[in-house]
Design a protein that fits this description.
The structure holds two protein chains of two kinds.
Chain A: E1 2-5, H1 9-21, E2 28-31, E3 43-45, H2 50-77, H3 83-96, H4 108-130, E4 134-135, E5 140-145, H5 152-162, E6 167-172, E7 177-181, E8 186-189, H6 207-222, H7 231-237, H8 247-250
Parallel strand pairs in A: 1-2, 1-3, 5-6
Antiparallel strand pairs in A: 4-5, 6-7, 7-8
Helix pairs in contact in A: 1-2, 2-3, 2-4, 3-4, 4-5
Chain B: H1 3-15, E1 48-49, E2 55-56, E3 58-62, H2 89-101, E4 107-111, H3 118-134, E5 141-145, H4 152-161, E6 164-166, H5 174-180, H6 186-209, E7 221-227, H7 234-247, E8 252-257, H8 276-291, H9 296-299, H10 313-320, E9 327-328, H11 334-338, H12 345-354, H13 362-367, E10 379-380, H14 393-403, H15 409-421
Parallel strand pairs in B: 3-4, 4-5, 5-6, 6-7, 7-8, 9-10
Antiparallel strand pairs in B: 1-2
Helix pairs in contact in B: 2-3, 3-4, 4-6, 7-8
Classes of the chains: A alpha/beta, B alpha/beta.
Bound molecules: iron/sulfur cluster.
Iron/sulfur cluster binds near residues 67 and 74 of chain B.
Chain lengths: ~250, ~425
């Protein structure tokens, strides 16, 4: 059977609930926007239900502990094709097993989840590192990103702790939403951004903003030690796809 | 802010500071308080990487590159004909805050040439840190250089505002120091180091009784040694490091391959390659000492005063101690697993975790992501065939070398050529 859901985490958990309800042992769980239609299998549309989601989540937490359930959430945010199926198998394995399965790496689903979590974690850390705020005219520190995975929910805590005394916003251009901190709380927002947002135009940004970008670029250039140059290592650490957001690289 | 002036100063004073390789920003537990700016309670973050692949996490600058001393290995030395500049205290504060707010950096690493006297210099450094903490409510990371010869009082104050303090001993041997930095006395480094160590211990024990005791250099202290500026052996470097780890409870010792900055006949001349491979081997030995349970005597001793350049120190040790292998990965304890060449601590923990569920064989090990190309010669598992058969140390070494493409292969070849010319003691 194929379960199509609305791409939210609650939706996915509701799908798990339904699969169990239907006693379906090998369900396919697919995001609505990715579903191409299927002639051969039965298709069921999942209605996202907070109540069902919570019931599944409680059960999962009881079986996998906080570490295991966190892993499930992180892997889910990868948005990888078929990650839902892997996660279902992971949950299945956890529910029947009497032992803690979160480190049973010889099980394919556990291994795949662990590997995915690692990738997601790496992307989350890259965002912590590579977000570059630019100060707007209304004193908001504003950054745009395009992470490979949907990691912004994971970055909230870090940025909120660190930048408690300034308004900031990190905007995911790929998924068209951002997280915005207004000195009190962090909210999800959607904006209509001009195409030129990557340029630091003085229509939006303060005049000293571009000066600071230059200072930073200058600083970055002076830290280089020519006799130690190692381009391969450099690109390994700062993959080229991130360069358009890093003033030290694009200026 | 006068951006042009600042830019000029920044270029000069960042350039002069880049030779200090330490850029760590972890290990502090300073949290954001009262909705201030910054937090350094987590792991340090590298916000960018230099083109030679080093982490950029701190704004690393000198307050000034005016210096009354003339240490031969240093670009800032008095006799060097270079542009000089000096930041005002407020300028450093503003730069730090503005870079930090934009998420460029984790904090500030402030060092300085010695102007007027060690105490005047140290006092100025402390002022910067104090302003950042008290006026800006800044909780980012601050690393201050302890100026050799600075007074105990100033070191005490420095520790109240800084997360980390460091004094670079630079030259690993006493004779080397005498030759290259005649103005400096070893005890001038040691005094501030000792003061900081004592204060850290005192604050920690007071904190146990009185919770409100202020933090004192919560990320500890570190030091740096330049390698390859004098003709010291690896043993001399690492025994010195081991001594500092123990005696002064150093958090880190950094090894920096000497980058030629002068035509001084006492030093390798400009154009000499930076000994990157050697630097890498020293770091490996350092890790083995700190995290893998090796003692310094096992890695370097009278018979082996230098680390092998063609294989890493753990492999080299294992080849000298083949009688301890193969290790059974399903039975061996953590310490012994950690001694298998090619196994990092991560793999060790993976094995310890996975073997609770089943007896591991080669397939399992591959699946959980343990790299076997080196390790397989030194271990047995729940499979019949194993690799060592009756291979000698020489056989194993050449098999491993054939199959590995070291990132240093090129450098390594170049440096071997160099060593050949100098009739160095490298044996194949
Ligand atoms: S005292 Fe420090 S800055 Fe001055 S020359 Fe010596 S090493 Fe360089």
């Amino acid at each position: 059977m194929i379960f199509i859901y609305d791409a939210s985490f609650e939706g996915f958990l509701s799908a798990v609930f339904m699969a169990y309800e239907y006693k379906c042992k090998q369900p396919k769980i697919v995001k609505k926007e990715k579903f191409m239609g299927d002639f051969f299998e039965e298709v069921e549309e999942v209605i996202t239900s907070e109540e069902k989601a919570i019931r599944v989540w409680k059960k999962v937490k009881a079986k996998c502990g906080s570490r295991g359930s966190q892993q499930i959430y992180w892997a889910f945010l990868s948005e990888l094709d078929e990650i839902e199926i892997t996660l279902f198998q992971y949950i299945q394995h956890a529910l029947v097993s009497t032992k803690d399965i979160t480190k049973d790496y010889a099980h394919p689903a556990v291994l795949k989840v662990a590997q995915t979590v690692k990738q997601v974690g790496r992307e989350k850390h890259r965002m912590d590192a590579f977000v570059r705020f630019r100060k707007t005219k209304d004193a908001i520190y504003f950054a745009t990103v395009e992470p490979d995975f949907n990691v912004l929910p994971l970055n909230v805590k870090h940025f909120k702790n660190r930048y408690a005394d300034q308004k900031w916003c990190i905007y995911d251009l790929k998924r068209n939403y951002g997280i915005f901190y207004d000195l009190e709380k962090v909210e999800i927002i959607q904006l209509d951004l001009p195409a030129s947002i990557l340029e630091t135009s003085t229509d939006f940004f303060t005049t000293e903003e571009i000066q600071f970008q230059h200072l930073w670029k200058n600083y970055f250039d002076s830290t280089n030690i020519k006799s130690r140059k190692n381009t391969k290592l450099h690109q390994q650490h700062v993959p080229k796809r991130y360069w358009r957001y890093l003033s030290e690289k694009y200026l | 802010m006068n951006f042009d002036r600042i830019k000029e100063k920044l270029n000069i004073l960042a350039d002069a500071a880049k030779y200090d390789v330490s850029c760590s920003s972890s290990g502090s537990k300073r949290q954001n308080k009262g909705k201030g700016l910054g937090d350094s309670s987590g792991m340090g973050i590298c916000h960018s990487y230099t083109e030679d692949g080093r982490c950029v996490s701190l704004l690393k600058i000198l307050l000034t590159n005016h210096c009354i001393f003339d240490c031969a290995y240093c670009v800032t030395r008095k006799s060097n004909d270079i542009q000089r500049a000096a930041f005002k205290v407020q300028e450093v504060v503003d730069l730090t805050i503005n870079f930090y707010r934009r998420n460029y950096i984790e904090g500030l690493f402030l060092s300085s040439g010695i102007f007027k006297s060690p105490d005047t210099t140290m006092e100025r450094l402390v002022q910067v840190a104090k302003k950042l903490r008290l006026e800006e409510n800044f909780n980012g990371y601050i690393h201050l250089k302890s100026i050799p010869g600075a007074s105990d009082e100033l070191m005490h104050e420095a520790g109240l505002y800084a997360d980390r303090l460091s004094v670079n001993i630079e030259i690993p041997t006493r004779e080397g120091l005498k030759l290259l930095a005649p103005d400096k006395d070893r005890k001038d480094f040691l005094q501030p180091m000792k003061k900081v160590k004592d204060e850290i211990i005192r604050h920690k024990s007071e904190k146990r009784i009185i919770k409100s005791t202020p933090k004192f250099a919560p990320a500890g202290q570190s030091t740096q040694m330049i390698v390859g500026a004098t003709n010291e052996t690896d043993a001399q470097v690492m025994y010195t490091a081991a001594y500092f780890y123990k005696k002064y409870q150093m958090k880190r010792v950094y090894y920096s391959g000497y980058i030629p900055v002068s035509y001084d006949p006492r030093l390798p001349s400009i154009g000499t390659d930076v000994p990157l491979l050697r630097e890498n081997r020293l770091y490996q030995a350092d890790w083995l000492m700190r995290f893998y349970g090796f003692s310094i005597e096992e890695l370097l001793n009278k018979e082996h005063p230098n680390l092998d350049s063609d294989v890493d120190p753990k492999l080299s040790w294992a080849l000298r101690n083949l009688h301890l292998f193969p290790v059974d990965v399903n039975k061996a304890d953590k310490q012994m697993l950690a001694r298998i060449p090619g196994l990092g601590m991560k793999s060790v923990y993976k094995i310890l975790g996975a073997r609770k569920y089943r007896n591991l064989n080669w397939e399992h090990l591959k699946k959980i992501g343990v790299a076997l190309n080196r390790a397989k010669y030194f271990m047995v598992c729940n499979s019949k065939e194993w690799e060592k058969k009756d291979l000698s140390a020489m056989n194993i070494k050449s098999l491993i070398l054939q199959n590995s493409s070291s990132k240093f292969r090129n450098t390594y070849n170049n440096q071997l050529n160099l060593f050949d010319k100098q009739d160095a003691l490298i044996q194949y």
